[in-house]
Amino acid sequence: MKLLVIGCGQCGGRITDEFARINRRARIQRGIGIITNAIAVNTDIADLTGLSFIKPDPQHRILIGDQKTGGHGVGKINELGAEIAREDSDKILEGIRTTEHFNDTDAFLLIGSAAGGTGSGALPVLAQYVKELYTEKPLYNLIVLPFRHEEKVEERTIYNTATCLKSAYLVADAVFLVDNQRYLKKDFSIQDNLSKINARIVEPFYNTLCAGEEKKPKYIGAKILDAGDIIQTLSGWTIIGYGESEIPLLKFPFKGVNFREKREEDQRANEAMNGAISELSLKCNPSDAMRALYLICGPPEEMYVNVINEIGSSLKRIAPEAIIRSGDYPREKRSMHVSLILSEFTSIPKVMDYFTKAIQYMSSHKRKREGLEYEQRGIEEAFRGIPSLL
Ligand SMILES: Nc1nc2c(ncn2[C@@H]2O[C@H](COP(=O)(O)OP(=O)(O)OP(=O)(O)O)[C@@H](O)[C@H]2O)c(=O)[nH]1
Ligand SMILES: [Mg+2]
Asked: What is the pLDDT of residues 202-213, one digit of tens each?
């Protein structure tokens, strides 16, 4: 499957840069492409400059709202991010139109953080423009939710997140949710944390996108997972996971596989699936998912049909309502990987929580404003008789 990826704001731009990186990795290591274009859109010129893999020309790194922000961002005001995106949408649509192999695009993926200003505001607006223009292609959003400490310190964070989530849900075919807090490592710096988180966000996409694009017969699985399976799975709120299990370097070179080794192989696949379930991108109840998909990727000699089916059964136990699609991809040498997608959630407590808190924030904000206006009237009243020097 090939995606056209657009990153909005700093977070969106950096994750899109990661997609451009894995596309390069797919080309170099596997001779296939998984991205038709990677575009970063921002109101902040410094953020655009800091990217590494997205082409550095103005069709791929698009500065919007320069007149309004002087190239310095919108300072967390997502209404301004949305307004600027509306005014400058032509630039992004032009970037899409000039994509070299545009017709190979299976779907759009727009990425941004919910808590900032540019990404949070621009993402749903651009999603709407793209959706209206390219009705035949699915459009997905990947939205990054803030760290817990950001929610505590800055109330606006909750408001931005709630408005972004609502707007994205209304326009996109599916919304991937990623909670920064799930990946936070206490002993790393913020910068280190963010780049590690970004790499982990895109990792489940690597094999999932490559599997259906594979050209070499020896790497084509018994059950191919292609764009059709992915598109059929993605709907509404969506959560991703990724698990890995190393294969020991020292495997005995006996003829055939003895029963102990066979058992270890089965366990490895299970271990990778359990890893994917415990590393889901947002805390959720998998039994609320109506659709699911998993891809198992490992050495050809370890890809038994019963292994694939068995890990499917373990997924069915935790997501009993879901229609489950699956595939195998005999590509890796030294490890077993499982990429997991849970989709069409009927409920996600964390998302509901943002909506409730945003409503509380709005009413307390209104009360504060009214109080402030009252105090200001008091000041004006008090200095009425004082002469002014102006
Ligand atoms: N995972 C991840 N999160 C990030 C990254 N950069 C920022 N964030 C998160 O994104 C939110 C802030 O949004 P930004 O993307 O920086 O904001 P913006 O869209 O550029 O908007 P303004 O700077 O307000 O114009 C916070 O919750 C950060 O923790 C990143 O590279 N990766
Ligand atoms: Mg910014």
From this structure: 999 999 999 999
Tokens read off for 197: 């988180």
CA–centroid distance, residue 113 to ligand 1 (Å)? 5
C-alpha span between 78 and 202 (Å, rounded): 25
Strands (E), the chain: 3-8, 35-42, 61-63, 107-113, 139-145, 174-179, 236-246, 289-297, 323-329, 335-345
356 alpha carbon, distance to own chain's centre: 23
Q: Which long-range contacts (CB under 8 A, 24 or more apart) does 83-86 make?
A: 83/121, 84/43, 84/118, 84/121, 84/122, 85/8, 85/41, 85/121, 85/122, 85/125, 85/126, 86/125
C-alpha 323/C-alpha 27 separation (Å) is: 32
pLDDT band with cut points at 50, 70 and 90 for residue 256: low
Place of tokens 């017969």: 217
Phi/psi of residue 225, nearest 5 degrees: -100, 110
pTM of the model: 0.93
Quote the CA–CA distance of 369 and 375 in Å, as a whole number. 10
| pLDDT tens per residue across span 265-291 | 778 899 999 999 999 999 999 999 999
Q: Are 73 and 112 in contact (CB under 8 A)?
A: no
Pocket lining: 64 vs ligand 1, CB cutoff 6 Å: no
Q: Which ligand gives the minimal distance to the CA of 65?
A: 1
- The arithmetic mean of pLDDT across residues 19-28, rounded, is 98
CB atoms within 10 A of CB 367: 10
What's the rounded Cα separation, in Å, for the pair 219 and 171? 37
How much distance in Å is there from the Cα of 177 to the middle of ligand 2? 20
Ligand nearest to the CA of 149: 1
Instruction: Give the tokens for residue 122.
Output: 């621009």
| 230 Cα–ligand 2 center, Å | 31
Q: Among 268, 217, 220, which residue's Cα sits nearest to residue 244?
A: 268
Question: Which residues surround the ion ligand 2 when the cut-off is CB under 5 Å?
Answer: 10, 44, 73
Q: Which residue has the tokens 């991108």?
A: 281
Q: From the CB of 32, is ligand 1 less than 6 Å away?
A: no
Comparing 43-47, 117-121, 369-373, which segment has the lowest mean pLDDT?
A: 369-373
